[in-house]
Specification:
The structure is a homooctamer.
Chain A lengths: L8 E6 L1 H4 L18 H12 L6 E4 L7 H6 L1 H4 L7 E5 L2 H9 L10 H18 L6 E5 L11 H20 L2 E3 L1 H9 L4 H4 L8 H14 L10
Helix pairs in contact in A: 2-10, 6-7
């Protein structure tokens, strides 16, 4: 059964995969202000299926961001928005910069900093949110590459483990987006879902959205009546 | 159970609600060539859930078109594409022009012409398609207005009846998009789904996509594995 | 007989229906600085019919504004301009946000706040204007929908009642734009006048302009000689 | 009393003063296709005041055109549109080119050609129109300059005399736009109505529109009911 | 004989007739930074005829400016540039606003303010310039209208008299641009030189440039050798 | 004394130095259709000084053209325009391509072809022009480089000799633009007049215009009266 | 030793990796008409090192092309250009479409067609070129992915084998670009050289250019003297 | 042997020849942030040949800058970036302004200021860099003109002497770009390498890049393995 209650406010934060051209400063409201990625899709499915609940979805993704960047804007972009639910998907750029600009080491966020910062943000949210956060969703970052020996995929899996560990430790709902992609990658080559293995097509965003919705008890068979 | 078979080609044709900025001349392929409306959403859900089937989705919607305009391009835009499945949603502009430019009567497509032309296109497709069409889906046009006494809504319902009658007569699958919107409109005011009551938000497109998928046996609980 | 006197300055304030792409910061002067909606039309009819009066028309409408937003800029955008006459038409967005983004409740301006704020602005203008305001015109907001059972129309009518009440209480001239539209809607479907039932065509702006001019004694039979 | 009957189609043809950014190839329909000059204003006043008549207004003005250019497109742009009423205002560029590019004599349309061509077009319309033209309106060209000794104004007055003569000869309704402007010019300097004394402001367009409407019996006191 | 000496710096200040799209903040240097009006022409003729002198020409015209606006920027745009020679042509907008926006009286600069301000700027320049100004050129504003009974022309002539008076009083070189235009207007209609009678064509700018050069002793028969 | 007579039509043809953004297909008329290079300057000086003559100046320059390209368009761009006077300045690109894309030899126009083609065009014009050409002006191409040992300058001088020879042979007026530039280059480095030594600044265009005007008897001391 | 002779013309043909925004219709000449990829780099190194040879480099790459597309334009884009040397690098899109739009099978060029078409083009060039082709360079397509088990890489290697086979069979010079990339990929992750593993950075283009130059005997130690 | 060590950071600073559209504020990273001139070429050749070294190249060129401008930004744009190696090429605009805007003397940087400022920057870098600078490369500015008697070339040679003197005095590596261009100019006319003799084509940038790489021991025969 859907875990959200009437009028719950659900905030998503992350990087370009979350952003998808959302409005500034707050990604909510008319004219696709919520962006056209998985967040828009989640909102569309929630609103069309549970119109009576009036779930409020806010997209606070920012292209290029790493967990280090989220920390800079956590107060204004998460705490001040007073979410009932918060979903975090971060880590792609923390890792990618290690592989696409390997010499610019000051731009890399290595796994220790990643874990420490992410946990700090989780704790801050749990402790400081008023009203109290009803639920936290941690989504693993993913790399659309099935070869686990690939260096960037291997790193991604390590960061994914951090997310899983923190979800368990802090009682958050876990969304294993990498696992969801892996199932599809058995049938489709990575280029079908993303030329750069990072920014998904609509089908890729559907994979993320459906993983998220599954984790919060979304019922597709429900009718709005 | 999903009615599509491996490698089936599914063509959607219609007006701006179908179009959603699809590529020209054929709405298929990389870079959102399929548009970002309900067709894109259908494709995303099919590909992410049934990647092993390799369903091929083609968007041939054109903004502003009426059934009279579809007739002009039926050979190139439907028959020549050799669809296995064809979905038609047309009628909004046939009616709307009667209400937004009432004096330009030569632009109106009244119900007799609507029914005759639509049936002609259906028959042409059934008879001429090679390979033989596996399935035809007729989707009613809709107006996002719950007041059945509203003049445009009343006309829309009459055209919807035509679609239902033709679906029954020719053994097509019927998608009653108006009924699907009506359920949501019990909870939401029309402006939430479309400022002009015609062009839907993402949530509105999700209503259409889900109605369509339900009619062809889409199974949300299936896993790609 | 026209109530304006030689060289009177007439300021219009409101939302997008007033704005119509006026110049910033002050909507007055060359090159359609006054916008091309009902304000431009009022100015055109005044200047062409009463050129000897030198009436000065200023457009201070701002798209998207609610009465709450007018309050923020009342000093600079009304009081500081030293109007002889002031016309206010506000309320559409105060209501619309309740219907198009129902979950974002902090953006809604409910009727109590609407009435209190509007009255506060009226009083402030009457009391603080130097030179003394010669005349105040209160124009009801409108919704181009004839069905009074429509939820947004019903709300609009309530806000319209507030405007009428305040006009009576403070001796302002009342322009019942909703009544003017209702007469035309007996003959034309709403889509002819506005796709979204809010932003009028040129014909819709003519309805507003003519209602306004009637209320201030404009004489169409007068010749400029 | 208004001379137009229910569903009459009224075509305006002329130069840039008529054009005002109308749609191509035919200036009629949604989204200000009719342009935002005096034609748009005429349409707005007709539709808002006589909505029950369903008058259809079409703008076929083209910037820069002279009577010689109208002749080139008369079949497609007038006859083929089957107007019930036709309004012609031409001559400004026929004259202006004599004054702004005096050496390019092949671009000048002198008064003999002007008169002969205009009469030819009038006769062609009266004789060939099917259904029969109900009414013809001839509008003088104008120059927003009160000094009758000004060389271009003097020439304009001669061309205006041609229009008056042809109106009388062929039983057309005459609209003396120059006379209408002259009345306003007693009170306003020409620059208030047009920097170049040719292309009017909104107030200038109101002068033209009101002259036209007066000539066809428009009743401002009528209510749409 | 040319009054300028080797390496003299010549600053022009004025309105849009001077400006002609000059560079900001200082109109001097490569890529037509000097604008393409009469200032550019003066510079081109000086440089091509007296290349050995290295005359430095600076354009400080600003579109829309009146003498009141020049006063605001006199320190930075004239004094700080340390001109050897200064040419001023101002007044068109001081007058034009009285005729094109007659109701916006706070934008008008009447003749008393015009004279007082212009004299103040002249005195400030003579007294404060270091190094001492070698020469001051006062150019009358002009209106490309030969009819001296025209209201705006009549006003222009009054302002022109002010310029002549001040030139005589302060020993400045006078350039009577109006007289120069009047000679040409005996042969050409105003529209040939400027559609709005204010902003000249290249030929109009040549009239100004040649008047200026004549006043400073430019010798066309000189060869650069 | 000026050699042009009342209403003479003067056509300039050439390359980018002539073109300067002229209008298409014919460079004549309002809004700087004549371009803003030396042709515009010639026209401005002629019109401002001899307004009573009504000289008609047409600019048919096309960027990048060589004599070979002129030949392609000679009928439409020269003969059909029925010039009274024709001025030709061509050769820069014929030579430049030999130096900036030396390997693309099919783009080079060597001196034999240059001379033969130019003479062919001259003869064609003299023989076929109706009405008979009153005067032909041949302008040498130029290179803004004083070093005669420079390879491109040396070639330019050879082509200039061809122009001089043909002028003498066919009784044309010769304008030695190279000589005019050389005088100025004694005082100014080439970069002051053109960064690429080909496309002149306004000062450079003034050098060309003045050379041309001198050759046709232009009198700077004349007043328009 | 460099195999090219004085004035040799070298044509490159291929897809987007070759194209890099070259000019149309022929990629040769001023202003980077040759594109800024490996072809531009080859030209830059040839011209700077062997300026005395006047090697002429032409870029005929077209984005998105497959060998099937090259066939369509082979006559105009290769034969008609009369190359002395021809370099072909094609195959990426022939393969990529199999992986990024797997359902659109008519867009795939499978290995049999690839080999047959490529050989046909080679033979046509050898047989029909006049003057006779001096040298043919066949460059393997490449995929910037070191994992040979990757499906697309595996396919790429098969197509590379075709190229090697044809090079051997027809006596062409072989450039094994894949091998060149593989060496670098031992040290750098693929994302450093291309986000999508196809379109290289400048460093990636340097790898291709250097492989090509090595194959034709380019000598980096040579000085232009 | 290449003088750079693993992970060395190499900063280039200069004017537009260095800039070539690099990213702001720091020219390093993805998407050609490094610009597409000689710096991009150096980086491409280093990365493709020595991928194991991870050399980090940063482009800090700014169009139009002179040594005087470098001084303004030396702290942020050089010192703060903590380069291991620094390459400076400056002087073109210091000289060019003396020749293209000779009258604007305050924009000229004469040789005394050039030498003093350049030495000051060198000393500041050597003394203040932490970690200590490993190597300094001084590149002469150049002018693509072989005639040493040309005034701007002669001046350039004097500034080049300053660079050579300072390189010798401070133990910097010298890159004589002028000498490198001179060798090529024996075979090619200057226009082949730069229309304005300053901004090089790709071939010109290759000349600079190869001179630089030669000076730091780059080995073209090395393979990345």
């Amino acid at each position: 059964m859907l875990q959200f209650e009437k009028n719950d406010k659900l905030v998503f934060i992350g990087d370009s995969i979350t952003d998808c051209n959302r409005a500034r400063p707050v990604g909510e409201g008319l004219f696709d202000a919520i962006g056209k990625g998985y967040v828009g899709l989640v909102e569309a499915l929630l609103t069309s299926t549970y119109p009576e609940l009036g779930i409020r979805v806010v997209n606070m993704g920012t292209s290029g961001h790493r967990v280090r960047d989220l920390k800079e804007r956590w107060q204004t972009d998460v705490i001040d928005l007073k979410p009932d639910w918060l979903a975090i998907m971060i880590g792609t750029n923390d890792i990618w910069r290690q592989y696409d600009v390997p010499t610019m080491t000051e731009n890399h966020v290595y796994i220790e900093e990643y874990e420490a910062t992410l946990e700090e943000l989780i704790l801050q949210t749990i402790l400081q949110s008023k009203p109290k956060l009803k639920g936290l969703v941690l989504m693993t970052p993913f790399f659309i590459e099935p070869n686990k020996a690939d260096r960037m995929r291997a790193t991604m899996d390590q960061y994914g483990e951090v997310v899983k560990r923190l979800a368990a430790k802090h009682g958050a709902i876990l969304v294993d987006t990498q696992a969801a992609f892996d199932k599809v990658l058995k049938h489709l080559y990575s280029a079908t879902l993303a030329w750069d293995r990072v920014h998904p097509t609509q089908a890729g965003h559907a994979i993320i959205a459906r993983s998220f919705l599954k984790s919060v008890g979304f019922d597709y068979t429900k009718d709005p009546e």
